[in-house]
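User: Batch of two.

Assistant: Item 1 of 2:
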Amino acid sequence: MKRTTSTARLFTRCLGPASLAILAMGACSDDDTTTTSTVQLPPRIVVTSVKGDPQSELLAAIFARVLEDGGFRVGRRDAVDLDRAGYYQAMQDGSFQLIPELTGDLLAFVYSQPGAEPAPTTVVPTGPATTQAPVTIPTTTTVPPETTTGDTTADTTADTTGDTTADTTADTTGNTSTTADTSTTVADTTTTADPASTTSTTVAPVTNGRSLAEQIVAINAGLPDALVVTNGVSAEDKQIIACTATAMAANAEIELTTLTNLASIAPDIRLGAPQSFFDDEVAGLPAWERHYGGEFDDTVTVDDDALEAAITDDTADCFVMNSLNSLITTEDLTILEDDQLMVPTNAVIALMASTVATPEAIFTIDNLVSSLTTERLNQMLNQIVNNGADPVVVANAFVDTL
C-alpha cells in the first residue's frame, strides 16, 4: 500500500471544494489566526396593521403568511393606533416595513401632502354614453343519436350530400341540435361559425387615469424614496352595483357580468340606491349616464340601514353599495364589474419600505392577484365581523387554499 506523507495529506486538504476555500486557506497557512465567514441574512420584514380595522388586520395577516411561506424573514407587530399620516411617517422612520393600503385612498393622500405635485387628472366623458345591445348567451340543445337499423354506410353518406356549409352558417331554422346564431351581438366582437371567416376586434383597455396600473405608476411617482407599493390584487373597496339572485336568474339568458351589460338591459331593471347616489355628479347616477348611458325602468331610494330589508322584499333588482358590504355574501348578490371605471379603482396593495421591497418580495405578494378577489375578501370579512372569527385564523385558512 502506498503511504501518503504528512506533506501530501496537507496538500490534499488544501485542494478541497471551492465553497470551503476560505477555511482551507486558513488551515494551510502558517498563521495561527482563525478566519470566520459570516452569512448575510436578508432584511426582516416587520408587518403591521391599523388597530381596530378588521380589513387591515386580515390583509396584514395574509401578507405576512405568504411572505413567510416564500422564505422571507417576517416579524409581526401588534396593530398600530395611527391614522394614515401617522403610519406613513412611522414607516419612513423605520418602525415597521409593511402595512396594507388601498390604491385610490393612498393616491389621494400622497398628492395632498405639502409640496406635492398636482394630482394626476382623470378623463371624464362629456356626453351621454351609447348603450350596447344585450349579449345573449348561446344555448345548445343536445339531441340523442338516432338508432339506425338499416345500412349505416348508406345513411351516413346520403345525409351529407347537401350543402353542409349552408346548414351551419346560413339557415339553422328547425334544427334543434345546432345553436341558431353563434355570432356575438356586441359591437366590439364578431364571431361566425366558419373558423376561416372568424374575426374579432378587441376594445382597447380603459385609459382614463382611474385604472389600477395607472394608479400604481402615479403613487410610486409621488412617494418618497423610502417607500414603494406592490402592484395590487383584484380585491377592491369601493362603490359598486350588485344584483340579487332573483334578478340574475331572471336574466340568465343575457350576459350580465359588467355595468356595460347592465346598461344594455337597464329598461328592465329597477335600481336601488341611497339618495346621495342620485345626486352625485362624480360617481352617481349623472356619472352613470356619461359612462354607461342606460336608463333604468325605475330608481328607488334605499338608505344603507334599509338595504337588507329592501333586498329581502325585492324592492329593486340591483343595488348600489360598498363592495365589502357583508350583505353581498349573506344575501348572495353578484357584483358587476365597473368596466368603464365610473368609480376610480381602489384596490388592495401593500405599502412597503424600500429597504425590503425586493422584486422577489413584491412578486410574492402580487401572486395573490387572481385569488384575493373582492368576493373572497368580502366573505372573509363577513366571517370576522359577523361571526367573530380571528383575522389570523381566517387569513391562514385562506392561504392554505392557495
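Item 2 of 2:
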Amino acid sequence: MSKIVVLGCGAVGKYMAIDLCKDPSYEVISVDVNREALEQLASEYPIQIRVEDLSSAEGVTRAVEDADIVIGSVPYSIGYSMLENVIRAGKNIVDISYFMEDPFGLDELAKANGVTAVVDCGVVPGMGNIILGDRSRKMKVTRYECYVGGVPKSRKAPLGYKSPFPVLEVLEEYIENGTMVENGKVVVRPMLSETMTIDIDKVGTMACLNSDGLRTLIHTMDIPDMFEKTLRYPNHVDQMRVFKDTGLLNTTPIKVEGVSVRPIDVMTSLLSPLWKYELGEADITVMKLVISGVEDGKQATYTYSMYDEYDPATGALSMARTTGYTCNAVTRLVLDGTYSQKGISPPEFVGRADGCWTSVEKYLEDRGVKISKR
C-alpha cells in the first residue's frame, strides 16, 4: 500500500485527499495546522490526519518522513519553503501551491537528492501546460493562446465574483502585471489594462485579463507568441478597475484618524464574507486553448475546451475538482514510475513524456471533467 501525504487541507487539498482515499491501494494522510478541519475530514472519510505547522522545516520534515509521495497544497506564502523542505527530505512531490519564487532555484537540490518534483500542477498553469507539452511532441508550435477562469455560476454574485481562495491573493493579482510573449519577446502589461472579451460556450461573454499564468512556459517553450488570459464576468472587471483607480487596492499604508492601514487590507476585510462560497453554491471553471503551428508540413490549429461545474454529490467546487484531479492524476504517474524525470518539472515536461496526457485525460474524464478537442 502506497502512503500519500497531502500537505494542506484547504479548498483544494481536502478534495484531493477525498479523491485519493477511494483507491484501496493508497493510505492517505492529510496534514494541516487546522485541527478542526482535519478532524471534520477524518470523521467522514478513511483518511489519517496529522497536525503540523507547515511553515516550519521541522513540521514539514515530520509530516513527510514516511511518505511514498507528497502532494503540496499550501498557501503561496509558504509554498517555496515547503517544497524545499520536502526535497531535502528526499521525497517526490507534485505541487499546486503557486508560489512567486522561481521553482528552478531548487532544480540542482532536487537532482542531487534524486527527487521528482512537479510544480504548478493545477488547471492553468497545469492541465494547459500538459496539453501544450503533448501537442509540442507532434508539431512545431508557433502560437499558444490560453483563456481560463473560475467564477460563480450566477452572474448575480456580489460584484460578479466569489473565490475559494484567500481574497487578499485575488486582489493582489489585480494590481500586478501580466506577462506574455510577442514575436519572441517577453512583454509585460498591467493585469487590468486588457479590454478584450471572448464568448465562451454555456457561459457567454467574458472579459479577458492579462495574466502571469505562462510562468515556466516563457523559459521552457520556444514559442514566439504566447499568452494566458484570466476570464471574469465583465461587470466584475469594471468594478475592480474603479477600486484600483481610486486607490482602494493600494498596498501603501495611509493614515485614517491617526491609524495606519493599507487600503487593500480594508477591501479584503469587506469582501471576504461576500466572496465566500456558501454550502451548495455552484461555481464553474472554463478553459479554452488554441494551439497553432506546423504539423506534417502543413499549418494546423487545435482547440481544446473545458466546461466544468460544482459537483453537488461530493460538495466539491469545480475549481477544486479541475485543479485537484489534475494534480492527483500526475501524482499517480510519478508514484507508479510512468513519469520519473529528476529535478524540477513544470507540467509541460510531463506532457512531453509519451502517454502522460492520455493518462491524465482519462483520470479527469472518469471524474466527470471532460476536455474536447477539435
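The longest helix spans residues 318-335.
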